[in-house]
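fyi for ur records
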Amino acid sequence: MEFRFFTEKDWENISKIYKEGIETKNATFQLEIPNWKEWNNSHLSHSRIVMILNAEIVGWAALSPVSSRCVYGGVAEVSVYVSNSHFGQKIGTKLLEKLILESEKNGIWTLQAGIFPENKAILKIHNNLGFRKVGYREKIGKMNGKWRDTILIERRSKKIGIE
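which gave:
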């Protein structure tokens, strides 16, 4: 098992895993895979991680800014995706652990996520790593014409932004 920073050269493999998540209809509101430029412009330039197992990318994690306002510069939204063929192997947990460490190295004091209530596995992973439920967003967005709810969770660093 190996972690490393990812770049555009990894996008083909990363986007395949992203597509698997989209197809579950419980991982994201996104309905289509963006191109690299769109994805790259909407995510922070640091804390982009892939996990490699047997020379294959089996999962990825990254952060998105929650606002362009400078006061929220230390707040980021979490994305964690694991290949369907590698579910149940603690890859999501390991990726999120690594993402937390990388976020703190880069001055992020709060991580947040909006997760569909049906995605119980990812909610459990986040809960086990110190995220707490801060809200329930009823009918926050439509997917394929159907209103969807999300559970808003966050994790406050015990190392960054504590003064």
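Residues 2 and 131 are 25 Å apart (CA to CA). thats all i got for now
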